[in-house]
What does this fold into?
Amino acid sequence: MTDIKIEGLVCPVTKMPLTILGDQAVFTADRSIAYPLQDGIPILLGPEAITDKSWIHDTRAPQYAEAYAEMEFYNSIGRKRAEQVRTDGSPKSVDSIGMQHVFRIATLPPEQRYRFPEPSTLWACDNIDAASETDCYRHIGPVIGKRVVQVGGSGTVPLLLLLAGAAEGILITPMIGEALVALEIARLLKVPLRCLVGIGEEIPLADQYTDVCFVGGCVHHMRTEIAIPEMARILRPGGKFAAIEPWKAPGYTIGTAIFGKREANPFCSPITEERAAPFFRAFASADCVHHGAITRYPAIVAQKAGFKLSVPKAEWVTRADDAICNCIPFARKMGSAIAMLATK
It folds into this structure.
């Protein structure tokens, strides 16, 4: 049986290229390190490595702790959802707003999809953070012929960008359950999504491998001093990075104290100036664009009460909020949602 080199794939810790032998594991070229395959997906997490080398197998280490703490829950849900999608063979069983949005985009003719990211009212689907989402899409688009990577999350964005003309889409997530759902959706859409189990702090891709790196609400779950340089490393010169994240502004602190978080998650730790510092060091050009200083938390409370604006109206409200805050010194920086936009 012959080793087959996997394009762009590297050991997440040593960054040595990986090859595949059969259907059981992927190996470094010198066979000193191996990683398992599950359902054909490489499990590229440091603690999963099979090696005689000195190695961190402690799943409680800071870069691994959150992923392993949540893994059983999310993998169980993901496997059930993937099986249901596989059985039904239809998008009707997909209960994700983001994935349903992907299916709506898939019904459009190619000439309309390839105009991504315009019009913004077509592409954004987050009625709370629509302004940040639009900022990100405008920063990374157009994507025709490009290689795109999403780090963390369900894989909505690489699927969306594949429909918009990207040449390759990759999802890197610590949850194999999420990867399995994304692959089933890709199968229905007939787009070439690749999924890897990994984390932002140890990305299993070669240097300068991708044109676009997107993160949707996951940077604040990472050790930014490690993960952000990793995401910069995999981008080609001129490559684009974009992320939608919560910012620890006064509105965030007061809003969560009174009304609770948008999603209950004990690991949620919003971005601060200190945690954002590696972002500005890692990229040639970087900016954090703040949104929603006045209206974001009222919008979250309204949504919890069952009142939900359409995406175009939600973006209009946020842009009006921003325009008002632009007239008040320092008010715009109080926005508790940010678009992190950078160019390598």
